[in-house]
Specification:
Rossmann fold; 44% helix; globular
């Protein structure tokens, strides 16, 4: 019996980055849904039910109703509260703050992976696979 495709929700305000990430995951056998804002991600998650969230840390807030500070970190917080089985991989384009972001992500349960952008597709897929393997261990 063939195993079902893992579902990956990709969120990044940079459309080129988000679309490239989606292509990388699709070509590696994942089913993807791509959004470009926290608002779009929160609206689509209930229908898509991702196994893995891949998001940028800095996602500008374009929706006044959500209030200030709605970024990748607030998305991670919302997802860990509403979908605890969803694994999360955060991407940052600020290598200098990588340690601080990892410390921030350590506060969330389940574990959140952190990678610096740009990263080679092999590193991205290896980390994603490791995150998804964690979900099988903890279920």
């Amino acid at each position: 019996m063939e195993s079902p495709l893992h579902r990956v929700l990709i969120v990044d305000s940079n459309r080129l980055v988000a679309d490239t990430l989606s292509l990388i995951f699709q070509r590696s056998g994942f089913k993807t849904h791509t959004t470009y804002s926290v608002e779009q991600a929160l609206a689509s998650i209930w229908n898509f039910h991702p196994d893995l969230l891949v998001c940028g840390v800095s996602i500008p807030d374009h929706e006044e109703s959500l209030g200030a500070g709605h970024d990748g970190i607030s998305l991670v917080h919302a997802i860990t509260q509403e979908f605890p089985s969803c694994r999360i991989l955060v991407l940052t384009d600020c290598y200098a703050s990588l340690h601080g972001i990892r410390e921030c992500m350590d506060r969330f349960a389940p574990p959140v992976g952190v990678l610096a952008k740009p990263c080679p597709p092999t590193d991205l897929l290896r980390e994603a696979s490791a995150m998804l393997a964690l979900s099988r261990v903890h279920v």
